[in-house]
Design a protein that fits this description.
about 325 residues; alpha+beta; 6-stranded mixed β-sheet
């Protein structure tokens, strides 16, 4: 299912390539700590670089998907204001993950990204930092073919039928976590291939849109903020997504209500998580299925990025060269 969005006059003031500059800055900062075994240092470097880059842009930006709440600074926290024109510039909602894959980066593993999405004010669900049950497929399939109220087997069978193949020809991407043992066992019992990833479920969801990855469907639970970021990307390139927040205790339910979530059991559709026009940008920190990582060649660092816009359906692949001191 492809959902087109009307172009936003507000977002027109924030050039697409400026979003790439923000993710490039975060990726370059994090890349200097790849393989050093220090997750916190890598994350902190990416956060500071992304904050500085955002504050150079002409906008009145509000972080609606961040890395925690205000008392957890120096992270880019939910509710933080960024931009050079706070109070006067265009009002923009921002979802971000300066370093998706902190463990990956510390261990020099694949698929670490710096990720950013923007939309008109109110365009992105203000999701709390809790888990979300997720299922996603790429474009070209019948509407509502996936459903979190169906069993994994039913979802796989539906996708296989729509693609004209057998279930054992479907490949599902799943985070390699103990909580997914039953899911993985059920998928393998019907002959479905399972591609396990150690981290980085934004890249995992986006991979369903690229035939070269061979991934047909993403399944399992991961961070709710990452779910919103992934939906911003799917709005630009097409696909389907269903998400439902998972609460482990009353404290997490209270946090959800604090950020305006009223129906705690709701199954969200793609356009409920990312509405209207939006822009998604990502830069690779380490090599992965979506993007190449940051490379240093003498006094130059090279970056690989992608930037997409929902209203135009445009996808730009950007190679950057950055001189360093």
């Amino acid at each position: 299912m492809t959902t087109t969005a009307a172009p936003s006059q507000v977002l027109d003031r924030v050039l697409v390539l400026e979003m790439v500059r923000v993710t490039e800055a975060a990726a370059i900062a994090a890349a200097k700590l790849v393989g050093r075994g220090d997750e916190k240092a890598a994350d902190a470097a990416a956060v500071e670089a992304m904050r500085e880059a955002l504050n150079e842009l002409y906008m009145d930006g509000t972080v609606v998907i961040g890395e925690g709440e205000r008392d957890e600074a120096p992270m880019l926290y939910i509710g933080e204001k960024v931009g050079s024109a706070i109070g006067t510039g265009p009002k923009i909602d921002i979802a971000l993950d300066p370093l998706e894959g902190t463990t990956i980066t510390a261990k020099a593993g694949p698929n670490a990204l710096a990720v950013l999405a923007i939309a008109d004010q109110g365009g992105l669900l203000n999701a709390p930092d809790v888990y979300m049950d997720k299922i996603a497929v790429g474009p070209g399939l019948p509407d509502n073919i996936i459903d979190l109220d169906k069993t994994p087997t039913e979802n796989i069978n539906a996708v296989a039928k729509a693609k004209g193949v057998q279930p054992n020809e479907i490949i599902a991407c799943v985070l390699d976590r103990p909580r997914h043992e039953a899911l993985i066992a059920e998928l393998r019992a019907i002959g479905c291939g399972v591609m396990l990833i150690g981290d980085g479920d934004v890249a995992g969801v986006i991979a369903t849109t690229n035939p070269d990855t061979t991934i047909d469907i993403y399944m399992g639970s991961g961070g709710a903020p990452e779910g919103v970021l992934a939906c911003a990307a799917l709005r630009c390139v097409g696909g389907q997504f269903k998400g439902r927040l998972i609460f482990r205790n009353e404290d997490e339910r209270a946090r959800a209500r604090k950020w305006g979530i009223e129906d705690l059991d709701k199954q969200y559709d793609l356009t409920e998580l990312a509405k209207g026009d939006c822009i998604f940008a990502a830069t690779g920190v380490t090599d992965g299925s979506l993007l190449g990582g940051v490379k240093r060649k003498g006094g130059i660092m090279t970056t690989s990025s992608v930037v997409m816009r929902a209203s135009s359906g445009t996808v730009r692949w950007v190679k950057g060269e950055h001189r360093i001191g």
